[in-house]
Amino acid sequence: MNSSRSGKKGRKIRWLRLSLFTLLVVLICGGFYFYNVYSNVASAVTKMNKPISREVSEKREEKVEFHRKDPISILMVGIDEREEDSGRTDSMLVITVNPEKKTTKILSIPRDTRTQLINNNNPKKNRTDKINHAYAYGGIEMSIDSVEHFLNIPIDYYVEVNMEGFKDIVDAVGGINVDNQIEFELDGVTLKEGPQHLNGTKALAYARMRKQDPRGDLGRGERQREVISKIIDKGKSLSTLTKYDDILGALENNIKTNLTLNEMVGIQSSYKPAVETVDKLEIEGEGQMINRIWYFIVDDDTRQSLSDELRSQLDLPQESLASIKSND
């Protein structure tokens, strides 16, 4: 009897030891796996990180702090790089995030918007032109300065995406599903109306098309916001974990940002509630020919209204555009 109990107890102990050993092996292997993932992520972010000359926007008194859950703003631009010049912004989105209000606002700025282009590092380059030309005249910093002037808000961070490499990012997440509203042909790609799965090449055409869209830049901006949202959704799914090497490769080769890895982790951990409500904003205006060049004209009342809404989102006091109007 005692021998039987002793045998059973011995088997239980051996089973427990085996279970603990198995768990330990899993944890060790898992630890190496996740360390490898973290190491690769850190390496990719290091390659993507391109700081700018300033640490704090002139429109802020101090730098934002994630532990305080300060509202932040991010300028996301898609760059159309060309052989003959430094490129132009093919798309421009201003993202403002307020974790306390649990809101995120995404504003599309039409590429042909006529405004004062500002270069705080070299004011001699200031001029009135299309906002997407700021990048060609002074790179991402002039784009940031010009957007800050146009909306009278600080831009804390930027994300620059190479539009040609954008298709690699879509392919890396396994493509996206959309419900296309307009049949069109662009750059050899034909998309019919209705639900369909897009690979990188088709998604790039879907995000770029504007001339065949009755709403022009506004319609294109809406599709670009949709594509970015779909990529983010796919990137969060478990099915993409096995493809993380492809995703990181696509990101590090096609994205530049002044965000560091610690700042990305801070945003991810402290700003999650802000994605509960996402408002997509559009800029109202009208087309106008000036000196035989077509511009998108935004009146002062519209600019003031947008500025008020975004400054409120960033917990900044209201401020009249009249104070900076002399630069226009």
Describe this structure in words.
The chain crosses the membrane at residues 15-35. It holds the Pfam family LytR_cpsA_psr. With 328 residues, the chain is α+β, with helices and mostly antiparallel strands. It folds into 2 domains: 1-48; 50-327, LCP protein (Aminopeptidase). Helix content is 42%, strand content 22%. It contains 8 helices and 14 strands. The chain has helices at residues 2-48, 134-151, 163-172, 200-208, 217-236, 244-254, 261-270, 300-313, and strands at residues 72-80, 88-98, 103-108, 114-117, 127-130, 157-162, 176-180, 184-186, 189-191, 194-198, 255-257, 278-281, 286-290, 293-297. The strands form 5 sheets. A 6-stranded mixed beta sheet has the order 11-6-1-2-3-12, sandwiched between helices. Strands 4-5 form a two-stranded antiparallel sheet. α3 (163-172) packs across α4 and α4 runs antiparallel to α5 (217-236).
Number of domains: 2
| Structural class computed from helices and strand pairing | alpha+beta
Largest sheet: 6 strands, mixed
The average pLDDT score comes to 84
Measured distance between first and last alpha carbons: 97 Å
Give, in order, the helices and strands. Answer: HEEEEEHEHEEEEHHHEHEEEH
Number of helices: 8
CATH class designation of the largest domain: Alpha Beta
| The CATH fourth-level homologous superfamily of the largest domain | LCP protein
Widest beta sheet: strand line-up? 11-6-1-2-3-12
Instruction: Classify the helix fraction into a percent range.
Output: 40-55%
What's the total count of β strands?
14
Low-pLDDT runs = none
Rg value:
25 Å
